[in-house]
Design a protein that fits this description.
This protein has 77 residues and is an alpha+beta fold. Helix content is 35%, strand content 29%. A four-stranded mixed β-sheet has the order 2-1-3-4, covered by helices on one side. The radius of gyration is 12 Å and the shape is globular. This is Glutaredoxin family protein.
């Protein structure tokens, strides 16, 4: 089982694209995903405001520059 945490905010097109990638990958991999809205937490908003989407896969942080279907497949088991 792969554990994913996606840090996102409302009206984020890049975040929506990452969710679509995860949906596609969930057909081939067992995935449990939690979505965290950074706007609901002042510390998260400060930390990730300019970096979203940020995705953690099995504890490994991947920022938006490194998220694509190929890099995600490499990290999933």
């Amino acid at each position: 089982m792969n554990t994913l945490t996606l840090y996102t905010k409302k009206n984020c097109k890049l975040c929506d694209e990452v969710k679509e990638l995860i949906d596609i990958l969930s057909m081939d991999y067992q995935i449990t995903m939690a979505e965290v809205d950074i706007e609901q937490d002042a510390q998260l908003l400060t930390t990730y405001f300019l970096e979203i989407p940020v995705l953690f896969i099995n504890g490994e942080k991947i920022d938006y520059r490194g998220i694509d279907i190929f890099s995600l497949r490499e990290r999933l088991h």
